[in-house]
Write a structure and sequence with these properties.
Number of helices of chain A: 10
Radius of gyration of chain A: 17 Å
Order of helices and strands of chain A: EHHHEEEEHEEHEHEEHHHHEE
Structural class of chain A: alpha/beta
Mean pLDDT of chain B: 96
Number of strands of chain B: 1
Number of helices of chain B: 10
Shape of chain A: globular
Oligomer: heterodimer
Largest interface: A-B, 44 and 58 residues
Distance between the termini of chain B: 34 Å
Number of strands of chain A: 12
Mean pLDDT of chain A: 97
Low-confidence stretches of chain A: none
Low-confidence stretches of chain B: none
Strand content of chain A: 15-25%
Order of helices and strands of chain B: HHHHHHHHHEH
Chain lengths: 283, 132
């Protein structure tokens, strides 16, 4: 049986990808942020999953306004890297896990989560920056990936309740898969940031830290947080944090906190990062 | 559930991109998506007006693009992730472009970010902002 062995949460700031691609991770500006991921890079060497389900959002890179799925799952053999306007990031293309992905898609749809099925998908910084943060700059990504794209760009985004429930359904679906696979789920985006309007640059670190506390200890409280509260307290783009709820829902009731890191700023953003494992060994 | 689009109008200095704004800005955002291709970026920068005239955008939208008035683009249905394709075509970063929507220059904006970012106090709502 496949099982979810850990969850990773991380911001996915595009400038972080640019800093890696341009070899600037040792610069004074960037060094303290990348140091927060050193633990994670060594942790994942001994805890590398067969498959990482990466919950992320597309930033008008693959999905335009012609088609805007609320939840979409990539079931292809591989996913190319988008040109987001600066040319594609010079990172490896992403290998998919079609057998598990099609099983997940079917199981979730039958459980009333009406996912859009993607046989073609190009992935953007929302998915590749977390890979770079966890794995550095390998020639080939060490795990297969199932992209799970969530609309957080256009209101209405899915509710927190829906996101937490989707995570729970993902956990059940993974455990129904016969092959013995070590599966992780990564929730990306956030934390507080706003990149538009006169209020741009908003950061709310105390709110971010409370969100992390609640995500670990009482995620059921977070599911009722309205979109407006994310936008008001964590900036218009802070609403990306609903994607962390999907990750958390897939880890079961109780989790152990393996690693936590916060850093302000990376470009316009408050960076937050967690590694969580299901309590009780998930045996 | 009845959608409440009005609730976002209380947020100061913020334009929430809703499904309604998506209708209003559809052609503007489609134009932006076209700039994902290097060939189109070159054509756009070589003759911006001609390139914009290939799209069924309003004149206000076109003027906002030509003058790089990002707030005006937001007001006319643009979304910042779409609009990023315009400043990316010119090699500008998010910080460089985003700062133009504030009352700061880019150096002041970067200094604010390094000092911990914009404090939410006084910026939660228009009401709070008026009394702050």
């Amino acid at each position: 049986m496949a099982k979810i062995t850990a969850g990773v949460a991380t911001s996915h700031v595009p400038a972080v990808g640019a800093a890696i691609d341009m070899g600037r991770t040792e610069d004074d500006y960037w060094k303290p942020m990348f140091q927060g991921y050193e633990f994670s890079k060594s942790w994942i060497k001994t805890n590398n999953p067969d498959v990482a389900i990466i919950v992320y959002n597309d930033h008008a890179s693959y999905f335009g306004m012609e088609i805007m799925p609320t939840f979409a799952i990539g079931v292809a053999e591989s996913f190319e890297v988008c040109d987001e306007g600066y040319g594609p990031r010079p990172v490896p293309s992403v290998e998919g896990a079609p057998e598990l992905a099609t099983h997940l898609a079917a199981s979730l749809i039958l459980d009333d989560f009406d996912l859009t099925v993607l046989n073609v998908l190009e992935v953007d910084h929302g998915l590749t920056v977390p890979l770079s943060l966890m794995y550095g700059t390998p020639d080939k990504w060490p795990s297969k990936v199932i992209p799970l794209a969530v609309n957080v760009v256009m209101y209405p985004q899915p509710s927190g309740e829906r996101c937490l429930s989707l995570g729970k359904a993902i956990r059940r679906a993974v455990e129904e898969f016969d092959e013995d696979l070590n599966v992780q789920i990564w929730g990306t985006g956030g934390m507080s940031h706003q990149i538009q309007g006169a209020r741009a640059g908003l950061i709310n670190l105390p709110w971010d830290q409370k969100f992390m506390d609640d995500l670990v200890d009482q995620p059921e409280v977070l599911q009722y947080k309205p979109h407006l509260e994310y936008m008001r307290e964590a900036g218009s783009e802070g609403v990306e944090l609903i994607m962390w709820l999907i990750m958390r829902g897939a880890l079961g009731d109780k989790v152990d906190e393996v690693h936590r890191f916060n850093h302000v700023p990376a470009s316009n953003t408050s960076v937050g990062h967690l590694i969580l494992t299901p309590q009780g060994g998930n045996a | 559930m009845k959608p409440d689009f009005e609730q976002f109008k209380d947020l100061p200095g913020t334009t929430i991109f809703t499904i309604e704004k998506g209708r209003e800005g559809f052609q503007l955002n489609e134009f932006c998506m076209s700039l994902r291709k290097e060939e189109n970026r070159r054509r756009f920068l070589a003759d911006e007006r001609s390139y914009l005239d290939e799209w069924e955008m309003t004149e206000d939208q076109k003027q906002a693009v030509l003058t790089r008035d990002f707030q005006k683009m937001l007001d006319n249905g643009g979304n910042v992730y779409f609009l990023s394709k315009i400043f990316a075509a010119e090699g500008l970063s998010y910080v460089q472009a985003v700062s133009t929507m504030t009352d700061m220059n880019v150096e002041q904006y970067q200094a604010m970010m390094l000092a911990g970012g914009r404090n939410v106090e006084g910026w939660r709502s228009k009401k709070e902002r008026d009394v702050a």
